[in-house]
Amino acid sequence: VRVVESGGGLVQPGGSLRLSCAASGFTRSSYGVAWYRQTPGKERDLVATIAIPSGLLYYSDSVKGRFTISRDNAKGTFYLQMNSLKPEDTAVYYCKYETYWGQGTQVTVSS
Q1: In the predicted model, is pLDDT for residue 42 greater than 90?
Q2: Do residues 107 and 91 make contact, with C-beta atoms less than 8 angstroms apart?
């Protein structure tokens, strides 16, 4: 199984980014996908999750109301829409399919 994230970059405070996550070789019909983030010297923190096929969502308090996790059923791709970004959102963001991790994508929020 290979998990690949994309969409990171540099954005100004208040701006938006959309991260994408896709997995190849993953065939389970019931699973969970999660987004985590990590800053240097700190543990990886859970940001948001979505359960398939129920669609049950979870958001950490720090991103609730600003971030949205979703899925494109046709493409089998998951997204993390990040709005009203703050400097403290700066981190490497990781996608996780069940126990499989992507390589991470850097998000930097700075003026």
Answers
A1: yes
A2: yes
